[in-house]
Write a structure and sequence with these properties.
Length: 170
């Protein structure tokens, strides 16, 4: 529903990314329909879909959530023996918000999702960290081999024994 944070979780290869790329108009669907605000957008091109207000933000999950932003940047240059301070400053110049948050734990940057949502933006979150995704989600769906096999409130799926066993490692 409009204004929600919705998450889609599933194992690698379940179809999560394909679903997103199809919604965004980057892949043509083999069947079914995609409706947005009462308009059938199935098979429309990405430019048309962006103009309607749907945006795909590609994954960037390759961080260590318990390390600070600065530590994450340094890990990325672990094998370098030269001075990396200039390159870190370059990254900060490109992304000033990272400089402001250089001592913040990388994993807490997911709070930004909640802030975006508080501003009235509906979020469809596809995240490898199922625990985090289910904690922030109003609604959640589990996908297996291209099909939705389970759905419910995020907190309910977080406590679901099957979800715990398959995605949360408990």
């Amino acid at each position: 529903h409009e204004g929600e944070i919705v998450t889609l979780i599933g194992a690698n290869g379940a179809g999560k990314s394909s679903t997103l790329r199809t919604i965004a108009g980057l892949v043509k669907p083999s069947g079914g329909t995609i409706n947005f605000r009462g308009d059938n957008i199935t098979g429309r091109d990405a430019t048309t879909i962006v103009k309607k207000g749907i945006t795909l933000v590609p994954e960037g999950r390759h961080i260590f959530p318990d390390l600070t932003v600065l530590e994450n940047l340094k890990v990325g240059a672990y094998l370098r023996s030269d001075d990396i301070s200039g390159d870190i400053q370059w990254v900060y110049d490109l992304f000033p918000r990272l400089r402001e948050r250089s001592w913040q734990a990388g994993g807490t940057l997911f709070e930004i999702i909640k802030e975006i949502n508080r501003q009235g933006i509906t979020v469809l979150l596809i995240e490898q960290n199922a625990n985090m995704a289910l904690k922030v989600a109003d609604s959640a769906y589990v996908m297996e081999t291209g099909c939705i096999t389970l759905s419910g409130a995020g907190k309910d799926l977080l406590n679901n024994e099957a979800v715990k066993k398959a995605y949360l490692g408990t």
